[in-house]
Amino acid sequence: MEYNNLNKYLDLAINAALKAGSKIMEVYQSGNLGIEQKIDLSPVTIADKAASKMIEELLNSSGLPYLSEEETFSSFEERSKWELFWCVDPLDGTKEFIRKSRDFTVNIALIDRSEPILGIVYLPAFDCLYFGGKGIASRKYENVEKASVSEIIENSVQLPIMQANNKFVILGSHSHLDDATKTYFENIIEEKGRGNVEILIRGSSLKMCLLAEGLADVYPRLSHIMEWDIAAGQAICEAAGCNVADWTGNRLIYNKADFHMPWFKIDRNQ
Prior knowledge:
Layout: H1 7-30, E1 36-37, E2 43-44, H2 46-59, E3 66-68, H3 76-79, E4 84-92, H4 94-98, E5 105-112, E6 115-123, E7 128-133, E8 136-142, H5 149-155, E9 157-158, E10 168-173, H6 179-192, E11 197-202, H7 206-213, E12 218-221, H8 227-239, E13 242-246, E14 264-268
Parallel strand pairs: 3-4, 10-11
Antiparallel strand pairs: 1-2, 4-5, 5-6, 6-7, 7-8, 8-9, 12-14, 13-14
Helix pairs in contact: 1-2, 7-8
């Protein structure tokens, strides 16, 4: 498709992310999370469900198919015919949300067949939004709640914002700090020297946004993750000039029969 026509989708997705974030914060501040357990034993809350319904309702006006972690999936036979569709994680970082960390996000991505071409990541607890995609520079806007969508787009700051950091910064996850990841960390420390490496542990797709912003050098993922967890973040990272590939160097593929993603690594072009 022509990627110079994405602005109408950008406006719609930002609005949906903000409205979903507002729903999430209502639940967050109420203390009544309504925690349940899904079939895969992962937690889900009232906020996940309310945000998903809000996003679906608002994105429906685009006329595009919709894939969300919290909704019933269309069959692969049907999905394989989709050319352009939304891929959504209405509340990424549910475990962070439950433990009252602020590292949770709303992720909305637009996928062209198997490739994310637009990404919006909203951090409602930080009131900060990131977006980017094909033909749209990766950008960041803070104090989102007080701004209109047009103000956000017009006044946002382009990424990366180059930071003065003498150390090599590796990103890791609160919930998925497994042995393979620890070994990767240790190898980097051995290569660069312990005093030259900083390990930054954060939750959700915030990690990908920090990399796009220029606050880290690499994010290795060597554990379980799903398409909707990273689609929006990938679009933002690539728009900021980062490399995104699986562990063998191949491009990540979306809208597969199985939504599980392979191990991957995101790093900055140095």
